[in-house]
């Protein structure tokens, strides 16, 4: 009997509420991604904290590509991700020692504190402190929520349930774009409203912590077998959970034999999931997606849109992002992970090359795109965002959460999260400068990375659809490349 047949489950209102409340951690993350670029382009914000950038913006005709090139302005965005990078390792320890639910609870508290300080900022240092607190919240949330969703999901729905995290990320980005569009004319404190409203998804996550249960795997891992079995019955919606309970107990007993999970990641058997987890996060950032999502309003202004038009275009791409993520939820457990990743590489490559060609020939250092070409660029950005949203966005979080064994799961996922935050911060800190130096060639730069990503999937990423979360070892042993890591076992 297969694991899918043996492990009974029924979808109940409580089970769905657990998924939704936990996924608010993604909404929290997405809201911050979307809010940063809009706030960075608001005149009132620039006058108060970055007057040099505001002066340069007034003389934008001098150079379309360089008017927002400022390291401190980019630090406003990137400082969050540097903070999240460091905090993800502390989150890994908390996740193992305290459980998934308490760690999610801490994530919401840090994020609320960041929202309050950011909205109340009077000095640049207060702004950065707020961003750092946001980052701790993101580090704790991004470490824990995908693991929580993977561990509470029945195997036949694991991909779709885990992608709820990315779905809520996209919804957060979309809501942030709407908020920025609404607050851009609220002078002089529209930026305070935008930053302060980040507390709302964090409050929803905080409330959710009183509704959701900790995951059965986390409870059993910490020696609370009876509570773990009760939690398993709640999240499966049935009483007959004996087969799955025994599987989790066996995995946890094996995990307990590992005293140093981070050290265990260095063993040859841990190489395949660690390499894939780390490089998926690197490639996710080098698609160029966060360059577009962070700075969409700024990017569209560079292409010749007025301020309101730029924000409206960002809203449109945000809406496409949300809608396309539903495609992934539907397709991931039917089509599989690899096909979605490879299809998206083709679509993103075509979109990026086309944007680069149009801007190379039509947008010089001065002047703007004509209306027709500007509309085409927005459409191409949408086709690019669309393909990312049903592939590299959600699967970059799903695949690492389902490939590590129990004994190294939180430690391995901490490496994935910290890698994501590191390269997100690099892109956030460098993009506006890269746009200034490389101009339209920046789209060709990201196109080259997309080719590398496709080759990586073809040769190194196995299909994980329908594979039990603690049954990946058989997949590695039969893989033409990764089986070499198990030849001594």
Q: Could you describe the 3D structure shown?
A:
The chain is mostly helical and 489 residues long. The chain has one domain: Up-down Bundle (Growth Hormone, Chain: A). The chain is 76% helix and 0% strand. It has 23 helices and no strands. α17 (307-331) packs parallel to α19. The longest helix has 30 residues, at 409-438. One of its GO terms (cellular component) is membrane. Its main location: membrane.
Unreliable runs: 1-6
CATH fold call: Growth Hormone, Chain: A
Round the Cα radius of gyration to an integer and report it: 22 Å
Number of helices: 23
Mean pLDDT: 84
Strand tally is 0
Tell me what portion of residues adopts beta-strand conformation.
under 5%
* Level-2 CATH architecture: Up-down Bundle
Could you say how many structural domains there are in total? 1
CATH superfamily: MFS general substrate transporter like domains
CATH class category: Mainly Alpha
Major β-sheet profile: none
Shape summary: globular
End-to-end separation in angstroms reads 26 Å
